[in-house]
Fold this protein.
Amino acid sequence: MSNLKLAIVGNCTYNALLDTQACVHWCCMPRFDGDPVFCTMLRKEKDLGFFDVLLDDFLVSEQKYVKNSAILSTTLLNKTGDGVEIIDFAPRFKKFGRFFLPNMFIRKLVPIKGLPRIRIRLRPTFGYGWGTPEKTRGSNHIRYLLPTFTLRLTTNAPVSYIDDETAFLLEEPTYLILMPDESLMSSPAEVGEEFYRKTLDSWTDWSQQLSIPYEWQDAVLRSSITVKLCAFEETGAIMAAATTSIPTGTDNSNTSDYRYCWIRDACNSVRTLNSLSATQTMESYIRYIQNITSQMDAEHGGMLAPVYGIALEHRLVQRDIDRLPGYRGKGPVRIGNQDWQKVDHSVFGQVVLAVSHVFFDRRVSRPGDISMFNRLELLGERALAFYDKPDHLTFPWADGQQRVHVYSAAMCWAACDRLAAIAGLLQLPDRCRFWRTSADSIRTSVLEGGWNAANQFLSRAFNEDVADVTALVLPEIGFLPHNHEYFLSTLAHIEKTYLREGFIVPDPIKSPDTGSIVATFWYIDAVRGVGRAEEARKLFDHVLEHGTELGLFSENISLSTNELWGNFPCTASGFHLIKCAATLSQPWHEVV
């Protein structure tokens, strides 16, 4: 596979990634971080681990999502004008008062002109591309015997044609339902149509409840649905991306497994979900974060790890999968992530910032109370104790060295600052004064240790002469106002050193061709904050032009080729896109 021009379908239990011709190249089951049953995006050849439909004399394809949904429509046309529409989706709808989220992939094939001649190829795998499952057949189904479970394809197409990959004329709508080894209670057509209608209604209802800006509505809606698809319904976790081991750029071989939940994204995730009025998703995510903090004393030496599994897994032991060469042959392919072993003091502030919403937002079903505040104070105590101690930055461009990072120290300030605000709300004057005094003390220390007077910028770490793009988020968390002389001077230095062709390049020495989409959104928000709104709007439009045709983004972009790089789709990119659109858009009341 040679590019990330991919679409995503899913139901908040599993996801599948499809190319522009509706070939499924990646799909993990039974959940996001499972063994991929389709994985050709990491294979050298397209010989195993995919699901496609080939049209004889294929000429061109067209692809779009059904409006405000995660249902994908792909049209294949051949040289004579014959064609087939392929509709792909994962069922998601309310049943018995809760969401029905099966490990079920439904594919509907509809002839749209003439008699298209097609070939269906379904080749699942297991063991991260290692094995080919045995097959058994029934009158209307094929069973694929994987080591941990069995997949069953039920269809109204001739089973022999699919089993033998024989080309045949598509004369009527054909349904392909891939799911665990269970019999359907109705015909494939009845199930396919019923589940399509209910899934479309469910996504439409969810989208209609969102609060979106007047401008860039399509981009915001698509990013919102994509982010939702990366939220694990069972626990509330939001994974960083749906894939593992897509290199971060053309100029390095940094590969990581992103199918986990990084605490560094907690604050922005909650704020964005709140601004969207996606309250239930926000509450579920906050409960996931609270569950992490509840095991803090028992695990990781009483500290928080930077990253956790989607079901609270703590030990994400990293190992390489040598049998998969990797995306474009750029390995290694990895399972697990070594970030769980790193020390990241910014997590204290991230968690407090995220959870503080339940104290102030009257819409939540479980508002914050004294007990929750006491739990958060434990994080505040750690923030106060460790803000001036060395830690790692866990952003992709970080070099892995421990320093007293300004970003982490500022996040520790944020923990104390928000605890003071919560204590004031709960009418606890002594605790309010304590946390306000603590926050002021940290802020003074950070500004003294982090300000580089010689170069006139806030440094990456205390007493260093190197800046870092993480300084762009300091106004967002309230540490400095946008018009503070330190921030204005630092912003000017970042523009001079890290801004190239409209993108922020966080590591211009080692990775001069790699622009960070997330850091660029940080920069756009900073430019808006200092009063350069029109410039920020142009920069935002420039970034949007570099997404996929469906409006999806990965982590990075190559400045030389404009290709997307990094794990896909990147939820942090989606969240920051939504945030920038909301702050840059013309207000609704000025339009209607």
Remarks:
- The first strand starts at residue 7 and ends at 10.
- The mean pLDDT is 96.
